[in-house]
Amino acid sequence: MKVMVVGNGGREYSIGLALKKDPNVSELFFAPGNGATPQLGHNVTCKDYEALADFAKENKIDLTIVGPETALVEGIVDIFKAKGLVIFGASKAAARLEGSKIFMKNFLSRYAIPTAKFIETSDAQKANQFIDTLELPIVVKADGLCAGKGVIIATSKEEAKEAVADMLSGKSFGDAGLGVVVEEFLDGYELSLFVVCDGEDYKILPAAQDHKRLKDKDIGPNTGGMGAYAPTPLIDDVLYKKVEERVVKPTLMGMKQEGAPFEGVLFIGLMIVKNEPIVLEYNVRFGDPECEILMPLLKTPASELFYKAATGDLKNLNIEFYTQYAIAVVMASENYPYGNSKPAEIIIDKNIHEGLDNTHISYAGVSLEDGKLYATGGRVLLCVGMGDSIKEARERAYLLCGQVHFVGKQFRSDIAYQALKHDK
Questions:
Q1: Which of 130, 162, 192, 319 is the most buried (most CB within 10 A)?
Q2: Which pTM value belongs to this model?
Q3: Which EC numbers characterise this protein's activity in its record (predicted)?
């Protein structure tokens, strides 16, 4: 089977890593890929999605897997399907669940799916009036895609109103902020749940927990994610069932009623408040860094999962996962998430310590020059460790962190801290 992965981040590298080990996969392509993906397959550059679909057809690509949200929102799946190609991902209509937070919040309301109290508006006065009714802190979100950074948690009403003004003026997030969602802050803990769907059937993957804040103890600005682990002990069978009945089933039913049956992977960002699941957001693709830990836990050949989902055949898939834990620690560049950093050569120690056989690196923001890898993105790479307990997986991930060097590297030292007290 020839497979192409669309995207250039750690998520796509991790999907590629799983496919590289898959005996069903004969050849692997990345569009456009990053500086490290040539270790796994061939990088492909095309001027647009039409040209990429033509490339897939000419090269007899059996399956295309879409990683990033932008391509989905822009309709890559519709273009490929129109040419008779097999592609894993959400249609343009279904991708509105992530492409517009206003659509998403109204969808939740229409189908009585639990979510925070909110208002969506492009009128600053209405937003400010709603802000005055809320207790602190207050959440302000830009409507459109902001690469995981379009959320402000304001600690004063003045800050919330200023965030609204900056978004609606286009100052903060350009056109993505010309509509806003203001909502109440929920006090609980976050979980990431991923559901692979084929429009009719679905498979729920092990729940993960992401760490959004830049620094230890969950302080500092929100980022695209500084680390994650799975499966998490912060969810049990009772809570899984609540999420399935109250969120997963009505979401998929609702999307069918909207005329946009959901295919691909649905990320459900949950806040658990007093053991009740409340939806924070939907994404229409794998989370990053959650994908980097779910892929190595997947025992079923990755090509089978993606192909059966893309061809409406999930009901015939028996999905299996390894009974281990995985932890990913993001190594970010010096100025992340505030701005760009100077390219820095990545050096990995040659000496191998005991325990590193259960670790690997997933490369993200890297470029290849003269045979050397350079850190050129915000989130540069992820150190992944696996083990029979969260503690063991964590120790291995951080052992690998000690082997990787580049100027200005920064990473959190407390990934999975909430789970450690539950560890076996």
A1: 192
A2: 0.91
A3: 6.3.4.13
